[in-house]
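Interim report to the steering committee. The following record documents the input for F-box domain-containing protein (150 residues).
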Amino acid sequence: MALAALVPAAQAALTDELLEEIFLRLPTAADLARASTACTTFRRVIADHSFLRRFRALHPPPLLGIATIPFMPAEPPHPSAAAARAFADAADASADFLCSFLPFPDRWAERDFRDGRALLSAVPEGSGFRPNDCSPRALYREFAVCDPVH
């Protein structure tokens, strides 16, 4: 009787492992997101942090280019050149890499860029520091996280 109770649990673990291996072979994160909507079992397997770490390690995000004014897209023979060109065409119309929507745009300095977002800090008024001064004496109290593309 005890052995019969262990068999379904072992089968469930085996099934999850097989599902993980199948999902790891999906080519894009969009395909993975679509698969996660199919059923609760798929969602549970895909939403697991260890699985997501493995997927990101195998499928790093594409390099689209350098966020400067103007945007510099990746060029052939880079594997992401086609996606970079499409992004550059869309970014020309909608991206705001200067984050000009922030109040007093000349007070903000870039601190970090990750996952398509920018961490900005505002230089305190009257401090005498320039926006890109990283002096430890400058006390930054205002921060903003911006997604210049959306």
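The chain is about 40% helix and 15% strand. The committee is asked to note this result when reviewing the revised timeline.
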